[in-house]
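Issue 218. Parser rejects a valid record. Input:
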Amino acid sequence: MDNRLQQYISRIETSKNLPTLPQILAKLIAACQDEEGNIHEMAKIIRTDASMVAKILNVANSSFFRSSEKIVQIDQALARMGRDTVKNLAISTAVNQVFGKSGLVSRQFDLRRFWRHSLTSAVLAKMIAEKASYNLPEQAFLTGMIHDIGRLVLATNFPDEYDTVLLEAEKTGETILEREIKMGAPHTEIGAWLLRQWKFNPMEIDAILYHHEPVDSIKESFPLARIIYVANDMSRLTNADDKTFRVLKSLFPCTFPEIVDMMMAAEEIVQELASFLGISIEQKPDSAREGEQITVKTPELVNEVRYISLLVGIINNLSNCTNENSIMKVVQEGLAILFDLHKVLFFLAEPGEELLKAKVVTDQGLIDSPPGLVISSYNRDSLVSQALCDNVFLSSESARLTIMDKQIMHFLNTEGMFVLPLIRSGENMGAIVIGVTAQKAKSLRTEEKLLSLFTNQVSMALHTEYLIRVQTQKIFFERQTVAETFAQKVGQDAKAPLESIRNYLGILSSRLSGGEENHAMEEIHIIGEEVNRLNAILEDVVKLSQERSHAAGATDLAVTFRPSSAKKQQ
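Output the parser choked on:
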């Protein structure tokens, strides 16, 4: 250990601000770590502190555990939450109690910002752990929560010196860690030392010790250290071009939409956690310093990425659809999720017919075809026909409406409609008609880029389904034709020799009838019966081929043309 670091640790050990766990929390943490301990022993410890009882009951009845039954007994709460969650709550509370009320803290140290960063890192660490199939997500949460605890120790024990560190870092552009190293007390080393005193797990200590190491070194570490490294980086993410994304992708498989989704979800959870834990945190951060907060530069970017992320999910669902009905269900769900659109009517082309027939997805998820709602391809005046003819989005607000258009709006029970044409490879697949208000139609105009992406994917899915259907029918009829031709050929080829055999047997029978070859007559009789049976079988084959040539095939060959992922979901 570096001499200067040892001197700082010695000063901490002899100072009045030596971080020590409150006795009840120390006992509770020990009980949680005792694998042989039971819930009743933990409950006995908790009951000695009314504030801890209230906190645990509050968390147990929170939305995190999604239960309608209210918990009023501490034993029930512990059973619902589990040992790891109780331990995390106890340690988080302990850290807040130990440091939250320190009388003297570095003036430049923003305690509320610190807690926001810590909670955000904890939530993200748990999300990453679950995504990476790390089997101890609660451990990741706890380690993320306290990964910067060394900074708290320095800010409370050496306020003036730490003020200088923070001011110099801001003035020179160096990171806080670089200034801490020059001071002689990196917060990573101080944090690791404290957690050794508190008898933490070695893996948790190492994750805290190494969370600022070069990424190439972290790549060769165990999972928890990588998770905390990534969570810490994500919690100070600034924009889509940030090198952080390259770092994250090098440690865990991830995409930009996935990262933004996690960040947005974490923001909501952090607010609720802070309330449960009684921790005062900085409200939504507005600047990107050495980095202890989540920021994404433009709301437009966040929204666009969020929508694209959702669209990717919907596209995956479309790729798994095996028929037209399942496509319509996914489309209706996608319109609701992406655009908050719920009144939807499909006009889909019928193969071999010059018609667009209306179909709807009912509230029960069934497909219904409203009688009478059919548009001829020769119609050129309706809004649906115009949209398809010009391949453009059309709104009832900007068009002359026919009676047919007004009837469609009456059917949807709306004051207006918005038409999305579905065209793929020059093929008219149909159109989606959406019931909208004037205001909603106007807002959809601002989202035409996303609407185009969406309708292109829908058109592709319908076109693919159509090609599969046509190919399936073609294969079926080809097989039927081959079977019929084969059966007829077999019948014809077999008929002549059978007839010859029958004639031959008749002659042979006549010649032998006057003799005494009784046994030979019996054998000949048996042969004749077998020949007759064979003839009957061949006649049945021919008859079967004729019958099946008029019947629709029941074999669904669509699965043959689907990706393997779709087959697995059958």
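Fixed in the parser; the record now loads. DSSP finds 25 helices and seven strands in the chain.
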